[in-house]
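R.M. (postdoc): so does anyone remember the format we settled on? I'll just put the structure tokens first.
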């Protein structure tokens, strides 16, 4: 049976830094960037890429729909 690895893509310009995704992530994959977007908000990013399980909890709780979740088969 193939293993599944998750990955997320954050729309950094839409992210307002509410940190709901950081709290919702069971694998502690997401962190807040020290950099800011054009609106002055620290945005979320995928800090621990190897730990993502693709559960989509972050995408579900994001109020602005900034997070896309992908699942990739790993051989």
């Amino acid at each position: 049976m193939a293993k599944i690895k998750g990955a997320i893509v954050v729309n950094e310009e839409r992210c307002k830094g509410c940190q709901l995704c950081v709290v919702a992530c069971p694998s502690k994959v997401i962190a807040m960037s020290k950099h800011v977007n054009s609106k002055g908000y620290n945005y979320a990013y995928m800090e621990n890429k190897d730990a993502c399980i693709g559960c989509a909890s972050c995408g579900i709780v994001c109020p602005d729909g900034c997070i896309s979740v992908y699942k990739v088969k790993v051989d």
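R.M.: ...and that's the designed sequence above, right after the tokens. Also worth knowing: The mean pLDDT is 94. The chain is about 15% helix and 35% strand.
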